[in-house]
Amino acid sequence: MQDPTTQLSIAFSKAIVAAFGEEYAAIDPLIKPSGNPKFGDYQANVAMSLAKRVGDNPRNVAAKIVDAIDTGDWGEKLEIAGPGFINVHLKTDYLISQLAAVATDEHLGVDQASGGKVVVDYSGPNVAKEMHVGHLRSTVIGDAIARVLAFEGYNVIRQNHLGDWGTQFGMLIENLIDAGAGADTHISDLKTFYQDAKKRFDDEPEFKDRARKRVVALQGGDEKTLELWGKLIDESKRHFNHAYQLLGVLLTDDDIRAESFYNDKLPEVITALEDAGKLKESQGAKVVYPEGFKDEEGNPFPMIVCKSDGGFLYATTDLAALRYRMNDLKADRIVYVTDSRQSQHFAMVFQTVNQCHWRPDNVQLDHVAFGTVLGPDRKPFKTRSGDTVKLIDLMEEAVNRAAGVIAEKTSDLSEDDQKNVARVVGIGALKYADLSSDRIKDYVFDWDRMLALEGNTAPYLINAYVRIQSIFRKGEIDVATVDASKIQLGEDAEKTLALKLLQFGSAVQSVASSLEPHRLCTYLYELASGFHSFYEKCPVLKDGVEPDIKDSRLALSALVARTLKEGLNLLGIDVVDRM
Predict the structure, then answer these.
(1) pLDDT band, very low/low/confident/very high, at 183 (cuts 50, 70, 90)
(2) Are 79 and 103 in contact (CB under 8 A)?
(3) Given 3.30.565.10, 3.30.1360.70, 3.40.50.620, 3.40.50.2300, which CATH number is that of 4-90?
(4) Coil, strand, or helix at residue 444?
(5) Are 86 and 47 in contact (CB under 8 A)?
(6) How far apart are CA 262 and CA 270, in angstroms?
(7) How far, in Å, CA of 13 to CA of 15, rounded?
(8) Is the pTM of this model over 0.90?
(9) Is the pLDDT reported for residue 305 higher than 90?
């Protein structure tokens, strides 16, 4: 199914070729929604750039395109405006038929992929460490990307790269032994447990000695040590899963591919690098030199893959993980969601894979980098005492604050319903504030802004959905009975809303290609705003509204509600029927 943008782009591309020749087949017609029905429904901005190439006046170029274009069953009229813009007015019957097709499509007009397997690596907390606000972005951005790609029909494989290996486990296991933890004992506070172990390691020589010996036992496969190590992992997963459940992300234990999973594959990486002729020695360590990376003095910048003592590093593990995902999982696209401070690391890893000719031509590698969550002082978000903010505490505060907002707004909900609404709105607000920001940029954490019922926020979008549900409740109408084929578009607000509904597929596709969830957020905000404008100008249940007009507006409202619900679901955000 093609939305108007796609169909118009095809038609304009054919017209450009017909008017100017095959050498211009790759020219982008630059089709954009006009945003103002007065100037048409869409606008093509290609004439200005094309005029320079063909040596003609932009308006003359636009005229030649208009003369060559086949408007088929979609075009009502084309107008040349300004220096050479082409305004497109679509036929009402065409828009109605497209809306009916979208309404009967389970994917709301989103084209389905013909195949392809995508690995999305996200979240990646460390064992025996509490998830904190720094994990929020990777987790919610990665989850939204995975949802969008799956909705488009890709076979999505989620990978949670837990940090579960390293020298720190010596001190953690020894601290666990000294605490007398049994099989049924739970660690209530991972952060405190880790800090206690670290303090003892720094302050107690005898404990430090035992911790180092325990590392040797762990790496040597000692059965008792591995059992205690496994307990730390199980305890950590219990904490992580509680956070994932409250946050509403789709990660499960089956998605875990921790650092330890790649241990036996690390020597293979070194051998493969050597076979590819890329392994070098530097001060006793084994390194590779990815092309294009220089140090401050202009010398080739090394990536260490094996220390002089034989120990492996993150780069080695990431190379092993990439090889596994390409060779064993047979991924066509591999997406890593981490903060922007790791951009150079992944660029070097990707370049190494390319230099070694390990990456098949069909495999795409993406690093989804994101900025930092800032406090009001525009410094990394911390508690008042300067500690890192626990993710679970942040979510609980979001729910509590939302409960206060809901209590002020309504009194006709039961206590259980208020609790559910507070959860949906609070967690949704927290996630949406993150996802609606351009991910590469830092953003300032602001409770008042994210919980506001106006503006580009989750509460505003959820409230738009709630308003539509209230229309059907008030009219005692079953939303399942509305018929999209009865839609009429007599008013500008109706047509504007229809055009926005037809852009859902393009919005989802733009997220799938760019891996930028804020594009979908922007679309949903514009859709909700368009509905509010429509609702104010086009009465639905008011006395005097003709039955056929009422049926049309109910059908439009139902399609908006469904699109809002599906769009928010792709962001990992729930909706409620009452608020």
Answers:
(1) low
(2) no
(3) 3.30.1360.70
(4) strand
(5) yes
(6) 13
(7) 5
(8) yes
(9) yes
